[in-house]
Amino acid sequence: xxxxxxxxxxPLVAIVGPSGSGKSTSLRNLDPATTIILDGEQKxxxxxxxxxxxxxxxxxxxxxNQEMKWALEQPKTELIIVESFTKVAYQIKTVCSxxxxxxxxWSAYSKMVRNTINLCKNTKAIVVFTAIDEIVELLQADGxxxxxxxxxxxxxxxxxxxxxxxxxxLVLFTDVRKNAQDKIEYRFETNNDGVTTSKxxxxxxxxxxxxxxxxxVVDAIKEKLL
Length: 226
Fold this sequence. Notes:
- The protein is of the alpha/beta class.
- It contains five helices and ten strands, in the order E-E-E-H-E-H-H-E-E-E-H-E-E-E-H.
């Protein structure tokens, strides 16, 4: 009897950075036929051809859950983009603030955020969350503190659990700089520099910085991991 091949888990990915740093623009070269965008921001997309994508807006946590379930059920879906984790977390906080008081609010918030991420694991599609970053101060074992850029969220419960970066296989931070020709260059940082929480699997990229073209990342995932 031929053994049934094991299912290769698709990676969970975060694209992190401040507004205007290239998160949405990085989606420009993805294949609209196999990509679904869940759009909580509803601000439009800063590149030509965005109308070719299947874009499903959501304005509440309940609607987000409904659209995510729908997206995962589509037979041609290879990639799901969530614009953005920041918006999803805000909508979760709204639900919890209406249903709970005090500490219970944040306990429920932490659990719902964690459940939202877990539901995107072990699926047939690569799921990508864009997110706004924040500056956090981490206490070290020797009593000193370390300042880092991390995925932004509210509440202390998630921080006590080590944040949410451990749930993602790839965390790409945006990086904007002027190059030698004095032109603005938009990039992704692929590995931790001691300040960000960037990470990618070993040997996936030979350079620490790559162009902010997410198709390059998808191609690398297919070549190196799947």
